[in-house]
Every structure is written in C-alpha cells, then in structure tokens.
Amino acid sequence: xxxxxxxxxxxxxxxxxxxxxxxxxxxxxxxxxxxxxxxxxxxxxxxxxxxxxxxxxxxxxxxxxxxxxxxxxxxxxxxxxxxxxxxxxxxxxxxxxxxxxxxxxxxxxxxxxxxxxxxxxxxxxxxxxxxxxxxxxxxxxxxxxxxxxxxxxxxxxxxxxxxxxxxxxxxxxxxxxxxxxxxxxxxxxxxxxxxxxxxxxxxxxxxxxxxxxxxxxxxxxxxxxxxxxxxxxxxxxxxxxxxxxxxxxxxxxxxxxxxxxxxxxxxxxxxxxxxxxxxxxxxxxxxxxxx
Length: 291
Hints:
Blueprint: H1 3-17, H2 24-34, E1 38-40, H3 43-51, E2 55-61, E3 68-74, H4 104-118, E4 119-124, E5 127-135, H5 139-148, E6 154-158, E7 161-166, H6 169-178, H7 183-232, H8 240-251, H9 257-264, H10 268-283
Antiparallel strand pairs: 1-3, 2-3, 4-5, 5-7, 6-7
C-alpha cells in the first residue's frame, strides 16, 4: 500500500476505536469482540480498552534500531451486559457473547471489536481486501455470523490460523459503514471513484490513440495507392465516387472516414468501399475497372 492508503486505514481504525457506545450491552459486546489477551501497538485501541473497563499493561518490545511500546489487554469484569451480552469464561472468541439472542446493535458492536482486534484492511491499486485472522476453530463460526447479517465471506485455515476474507469493495464498504466508520469510509469511496474515473479516462485515451494510429497508417496506404493509379492513368477511369474519395483524401490526408464522408455528403460505408477499391486497384494490376 502507498503511504496515503496506510494513513487512510489508520484513520479508519482510529475513528472506529473512538466510538463510545452509550448502551451498556453494546460496551460489553464490543469488549467481548476485542477478545482476551489482546496485544496491540495502536494507542487508539488501548484507549478503547480502558474506556470499556479492560485492564491494560504497557511493555517495551526490543527492536533492531528502535523500540516500540505495546499494550496488553487482559480480562476484566464486564458489567451491564444486559440480555444480549453476558459475562462468562473467555473462549476462542473472547468473553462469551450470545450472538443468537443479541440485538442487531450489539452484534455490530461485537463485530467492530472483532475487526479492531483481529481485522486488517488493505488498499492496493484501487482494490480493497479485508480479512479477520482468528483462531482456526472460530473462522467458520465468524463466517456464519457474517452471513447472517448478509455479508458472506470466504474462510480458510492458513498456517494454523483461521482467515475470513472479503475482496468485494461494496461488501467491505457496507461492513465498515455498519460498524460506525463515517468520515474515513467517505474518503475511501471518493478515492475509489477517482481511481475508477482515471481508469475510464485512460481507457478512452488509449482507445482514441489506437484509432488515430490505425487511421494514420490507413491514410498512408491510400495516398500511396492514389499516387500509383494517377501515375498510370487508371484513376481517371474509375467511377465518380472513387475519384471524389481520392480527391478528398489527397486534399485532407489527416481526415478520418467520418470527416471525409461528411465533406463529400456520402455514407461512411460508401467512402470506405471507394478507398478500399483504390488500394485493391493499386495492388492488383490486372483487376478490370468498374463499369
């Protein structure tokens, strides 16, 4: 990804992490989505964990040239879970969360937490790729839950970890919008539209350039053929339409067939056949003249 794309993804994650759910059940659901034992170097997610009542501990991770601080998020009691989120023993997907009984807003809060904890978004060459990397036994469960909210994704096991993937930009945009992204998703969509417009403009320019090149080559052949027919006197023997087309081509070598036909007030196909006839006459010395 380019630096601007990375900055956009970082801004999107920070925007999601800054959401402060007002409902206690949503707070418990998002905390459950973050899962147990999360380690992050994103300050926005560490602050989110603190707001949700999770315990955090900062440590320093040695590096070759620089050291980066990481924050470990550990389990803490979850109050106010309500009917849609209930305290429990952490499992593969974090503290227990009753997806079946949960309200829609709690489901989306849980998915927001899961994305911040286990999700990644990649933008490259105008294409979007979002994936969740979760424990292997959680991947089919997460895929089923996403399908239940009309956002089906593929899943597989990669190097012992479960991976749930979306590659459809529309699906990714819908998901990010539903979990609370607003400003960043507008910027993402604006970039996608801009890239699409640039791609369409390049396609049109390339097509026009190719057409112009073909027209130049064809005009060169026609001018050479006209010169040969004039030299041996055969052009004067041709029908009026052929002579008119030859004269128009000599007068405007750069003109397209459409422009020649407009100038001669003839159908484009008529002018095209006349010029093709000139080329054939020049190539076939014994071809009889048109009656």
